[in-house]
Structure formats: structure tokens, C-alpha cells
Specification:
By secondary structure, the chain is of the alpha/beta class. The chain folds into two domains: 7-185 and 223-248, Rossmann fold; 187-220, no CATH class. The chain has eight helices and seven strands. It has a seven-stranded parallel sheet, sandwiched between helices. The structure holds NADP nicotinamide-adenine-dinucleotide phosphate.
Length: 254
């Protein structure tokens, strides 16, 4: 019960690592609000933690490209739980394209979801946490933030901006007892990654083979590999940890 009765909001909590973190927060005793567009995930998450969670996770639908949706999620979390102690921004898309192939729509989609949604959500959550004495914000990073691979231009630049957002919040607002940290995620066969690879004609077997060669640890990482790091950063055990980049990458470096 590492997070007993804490109010935790996960934007992008419907799939992959975000979903794993949301479910584990509930099992650790938190009052969890999960957000995303996929309303079917609400029942699946509730079923996954039934009998193990202290509080039933709530779902609030939002498309992070719409700032009013984000405002509604933050407001509903405050209404439901009275405060926000922890916030994870996991929503993101990771298209493959060389810089010269990237059109304006793709650029805007990536920045709307990976950066703009995070920027406004963090501002709203920070304002809320300031009023209630503080909290913990965790942003979802990638080793691509430091330049990225040759065919990941817009994704890499978006994650660089997100890293600066983490540093900006930590540097300036830790004085309000709001800690902000970043998890550099490793390579995971999430629904988003699998869909993106399917578009390239590649499947899970290809991912596993590639990860065995390219990842120092020798395998694809899993949701379970990542969840404890997020839980730690959300918990009081990390009470003086802020501005950090927690690498959960199996040895892949920036
Ligand atoms: N997979 C990897 O290997 C890897 C590696 C490093 C970092 N990451 C990071 O992990 C995060 C997720 O990426 P992923 O492809 O692996 O995804 P994923 O696990 O399939 O999950 C993507 C999440 O983003 C949400 N999302 C996407 N667009 C949204 C929108 N417009 N509004 C609200 N929510 C939205 C989805 O919710 P709905 O579908 O419900 O809208 C879903 O919960 C990203 O931040 C990415 O940078 C992934």
C-alpha cells in the first residue's frame, strides 16, 4: 500500500505502461483516475484490479488534442478526490519518418499529443497541487530525446521538448513541494509500438529479434519492467527526488 489514499491521475492510462501504472497505483491503495479516448479500457481496468484495489479506478474520457478535455479531466479528478497527489503523462505517439518526409499534419499531431497536451496538463495539475501542498509529476520519456534515430525526427524533437518541460517544472516549482521527474522508457511491444511496426510490415517476432540484437540487456522490455519506477517516483519514498531522469531502458543510452 505504497500509495494508500493518494489521488493519482494518469493521462494515457488506457494502454501499455500507462495502464500498467494505473492498475498498480490502484493495487497500492490509490484513488486513481484513468484518462484516454478508449472508453472500453475503463471496464477492463476495473476488472483487472477487482478484489485487489482499495478504491475502484475512475475513467474520464479525454482527447489530449483538446485542451478543454484536459481541463475537464483535471477538474473531475479534483471533484472526485478533493486533490491531486500524483500525475503521470503517458499519452504519446511515435511515428517513423525522416525529417524530409514529415508533413505539417504529422508534425502537428505529434506535438499536439506529445508536447502541447503535456504542457497544458502540467500547468493545470501544478496549479492544483500548489493549492493542496504539493505532489509528484512524472513525464514519460524516451532515449530519442537526445537526438533520436535518423527516421524519428519529429518524435525525437517532441521528446526533447518534453524533457525541457520536466526540467522547467522541477527547477522552478519544487519550491511548492511539486516534484517533477521523467522516466526514460525502454523498448516495449505496446499497442502503439505494434501498430506502428505493423505499418512497416513488421510483427512481434521482428521486434523480439531486433531487441535481442540492439538492446544491451538482450531483450524487449515489458510493462512490468517499468511500473515499479513510476510507482517509486509517485510515492513518498521519492520525497526529495526531483528533476531526475530514471533510465529503464535495458542499457540503451541517449
Ligand atoms: N513503446 C515503446 O517502446 C516506447 C519507448 C519509449 C517511450 N515510449 C513512450 O510511451 C508512450 C506511449 O507510447 P506507445 O506507442 O508505447 O503507446 P501505448 O502503450 O499504445 O499507449 C498510448 C497511450 O496514449 C494515449 N493517447 C494517444 N493519443 C491520445 C489522444 N489524442 N488523447 C488521449 N490519449 C491519447 C492512448 O490512449 P487512447 O488510445 O485511449 O486515446 C494510450 O493510453 C509515449 O509517450 C512514448 O513516447 C514508448
Amino acid at each position: 500500500m505504497e500509495l494508500k489514499d493518494k489521488s493519482i491521475l494518469i493521462i494515457g492510462g488506457t494502454k501499455g505502461v500507462g495502464r500498467g501504472v494505473g492498475e498498480q497505483c490502484a493495487i497500492e491503495g490509490a484513488k486513481v483516475v484513468i484518462s484516454g479516448r478508449d472508453i472500453d479500457a475503463a471496464d477492463e481496468i476495473a476488472a483487472a484490479v477487482a478484489g485487489k484495489a482499495l478504491h475502484k479506478p475512475e475513467f474520464v474520457q479525454a482527447d489530449v488534442r483538446n485542451i478543454e478535455d484536459i481541463r475537464n479531466v483535471v477538474r473531475r479528478t479534483e471533484e472526485l478526490n478533493g486533490r491531486i497527489d500524483g500525475f503521470v503523462y503517458y499519452a504519446g505517439i511515435l511515428p517513423v519518418a525522416y525529417i524530409w518526409e514529415t508533413d505539417e499534419k504529422q508534425f502537428d499531431d505529434v506535438f499536439d499529443i506529445n508536447v502541447k497536451g503535456a504542457f497544458f496538463a502540467c500547468g493545470m495539475v501544478l496549479e492544483s497541487m500548489k493549492k493542496t501542498g504539493g505532489g509528484s509529476i512524472v513525464l514519460t520519456g524516451s532515449a530519442h530525446a537526445y537526438g533520436g534515430e535518423e527516421d524519428r525526427g519529429v518524435y525525437a524533437v517532441s521528446k526533447g521538448a518534453l524533457l525541457t518541460l520536466m526540467k522547467h517544472l522541477s527547477k522552478n516549482f519544487t519550491k511548492y513541494n511539486v516534484r517533477t521527474n521523467w522516466v526514460t522508457m525502454g523498448w516495449v511491444a505496446t499497442p502503439g509500438e505494434l501498430a506502428m511496426r505493423a505499418g512497416q510490415g513488421r510483427d512481434l517476432a521482428w521486434l523480439e529479434e531486433q531487441a535481442a540484437k540492439d538492446t544491451p540487456i538482450g531483450r524487449l522490455l515489458t510493462v512490468e519492467d517499468h511500473v515499479p519506477g513510476f510507482i517509486y517516483l509517485l510515492s513518498d519514498k521519492a520525497g526529495v527526488v526531483t528533476g531526475t531522469e530514471l533510465n529503464i531502458t535495458g542499457g540503451v543510452s541517449a
